[in-house]
Amino acid sequence: MSKSGKNVDYAAALENSFARWDYIHEHGCSDPFWADGVNMNLVRNHIMYYKQKLSEEATLFLLPEAYYREVPPEVDNNFMARPDEIRQNAARSMQIIDEDENLKFVREQSVHLTEKQLKQLCIPAILSYAENLRRAISEDDLLTMRRYENLNGYLESFKSAAQKLRSPEILAGMESIPADEDEEYEELDEVDCSEIEQTEAGSAPEAQENFVQLTLF
Are residues 191 and 96 in the same domain? Predict the structure, then answer.
């Protein structure tokens, strides 16, 4: 019986957890913050929990086939599935980013912007995308490299920033803000830039699709 008072199908939950562990081991997941090994060990904990509940609530003749399957081994928390594929994808993503015309334009124009404009447009955060991937490749940081397998969010950020920089009205509007209102706009900037930084963290819906919760129950 669960905390909500509803019956739990531990047999189905056990089978799903075994399937989930196998999938992460072979394909990895899309968790932007934790390596596959962490998620695999969490699923392993689920497997042991469901086995325990089944042994407590079922007779020997009612135990599902999955119950007799051996518990998967504990793995290194830093384990990452398909490492060579991630490295290859990162190299391709790096090339695409370096060749992106919008990013090139943002880089060229950024040297002409005031500190206020840079901050309000989140230009430093946007420019850091390329360098973060470059650093991850040099350090063989597979978790960070995996975030760049779906480039849509990054490329859209480059495009959006370039469009704003091509708009004299937007830049002029920023420069017209009185100095005594800077503090107010700084607070707004922090909200805007936090949304930009979510792209770096891989928090788009597709990046969270296979995310394993960091709580057991």
Answer: yes
